[in-house]
Amino acid sequence: MIIKKINNLAKSTLDLKLKCQEYGQTKVFYQYTTHPLRVSQPFHLEQNTSKRIYLYLRNNSPGLFPEDELNLALQLEQGSQLYLTEQAATKVHPASEQSLAARVNYQITIQENAGLEFVPEPLILYADAALKQSTNIQIDPSSKLFWSEIVLPGRLARGESYQFHYYDSLLNVTSSEGKLLFKDRSYLSGKNNQFIDSSLFAAYPVMGTAIAVYPEINCYQLQKAIDNLKTNNFTVATSTLPFEQGIIIRVLADKSEQIKNYFRSVLNSIRLMNNDSELPYIPK
Fold this sequence. Notes:
There is one protein chain. The strands form 2 sheets. Strands 3, 4, 6, 7, 9, 10, 12, 15, 16 and 17 form a 10-stranded mixed beta sheet that branches. A 7-stranded mixed beta sheet has the order 2-1-5-8-11-13-14, with no helix packed on it. The longest helix has 18 residues, at 256-273. It has helices at 199-203, 219-227, 256-273, and strands at 11-20, 26-33, 37-39, 53-59, 69-76, 81-86, 90-92, 102-110, 115-119, 123-125, 130-139, 144-152, 166-175, 180-189, 206-213, 235-240, 247-253. The chain is built from 3 helices and 17 strands. A hairpin with a 5-residue loop joins strand 1 (11-20) and strand 2.
């Protein structure tokens, strides 16, 4: 069934700029949003000595409809630290034609000694959905990045699996001078996917990806520490990024909660190696 949206297509913008204040804590000093995107008030969930703030992204619409376009720009100035998440999963609704894809565009700048941890809720691709996602991250060599996503190929509890059109995601990470550090392209075909009946995809339909860039940690030590984490009932593969910038993690599981818990363990392990505080409980 194709859901028709009564109002015009949504073209929404979220523009955030953060800086580290003189006394050490991070503050949002510029914020511009248009409906339906919203951002929460910042939370301080760690001890008072921590620079990091926590923010929730909110989409006040029922999800992404055909030809919707969300543009999110984020700038972390020198020394600022942010954990960014969402309050609910993103639902990508049906499109009558593949050409009517929804679009999500991220433009991220991470300046000197800044750090971003982006841990969103899952992305659910409804039957006949089509989504194009573009992520451009410019990062200073001294800065840290943990970027993750979880993709569900349908409303699995309803027996809906791989009935969407496609999910097309392009990630570009460049240096502060504009040099390309690495690129990750993911194209997931739905109805025409010839592998959906394979034992691997049938048993583990939920997909997760994470990228960890931490200049103070040797990437091979980082990979070894993460490879030692328990991975019961799901499968994980890790590899180093070009120029030994960090590591990329791919996960296949039968439940999104497994990947969410695993990414939490990964991030906690990274924080421990980076002499940082443990990830606190984050209410949703």
